[in-house]
Design brief:
CATH superfamily of the largest domain: N-terminal domain of the delta subunit of the F1F0-ATP synthase
Number of domains: 2
CATH class of the largest domain: Mainly Alpha
Order of helices and strands: HHHHHHEHEEEH
Number of helices: 8
């Protein structure tokens, strides 16, 4: 997940406030996860949203047709963002919404990158480390990257805990070169 820009954070904050008022936070979160999944799997849809050539109303119409089963509040968000010519930020807005909702519930998002899939025992140890670093229960996103060779890289908010073999080798190489 990339850094969320301020405009996306403002849209997400407004969406969360409205979802809280309507008591539809979880339904909007389910919409957000599904929309992010579909956009993530569809490069054409990603390109359409980022395109400065496609008119905002056309983008909104396509989104409304593709996601015809989402909450009214989610559809309203498409409309507001279309009117403000900001549908290119939709993924960031939805990611930011999910982060804000999790934070509101007392959770912190964390990501771990390993060279091989985590075992259940290691997953528990990593979630314990997340709680130690943040003071909150963690929601863990797992990534596989064989380039780190072994160990793991844990990101919790702005904190990075790099216990990868690649990092250790890089540090040793720097010491040897100097």
């Amino acid at each position: 997940m990339s850094r969320i820009n301020r405009a996306a954070a403002r849209y997400a904050g407004a969406l969360l406030e409205l979802a809280n008022e309507a008591k539809t936070q979880e339904k909007v979160a389910a919409d957000a996860r599904e929309i992010l999944r579909v956009i993530g799997e569809n490069k054409d849809l990603q390109s359409l949203l980022k395109s400065p050539i496609v008119k905002p109303d056309d983008k909104k119409d396509i989104l409304t047709k593709v996601f015809d089963n989402v909450q009214g509040l989610t559809l309203h968000t498409f409309g507001v963002m279309s009117n403000n010519r900001r549908l290119d930020l939709l993924e960031e807005v939805l990611e930011s919404y999910l982060l804000a909702l999790n934070s509101e519930k007392g959770f912190v998002n964390a990501s771990v990158t390993t060279a091989v899939p985590l075992t259940d025992a290691l997953r528990i140890k990593i979630l314990t480390k997340v709680k130690t670093l943040s003071g909150k229960e963690g929601l863990l996103t797992e990534n596989i990257d064989e380039n780190i060779i072994g160990g793991f890289v844990l990101r919790v908010g702005d904190i990075e805990y790099n216990a990868s073999l690649k990092n250790q080798f890089d540090q040793l190489k720097e010491v040897l070169v100097n």
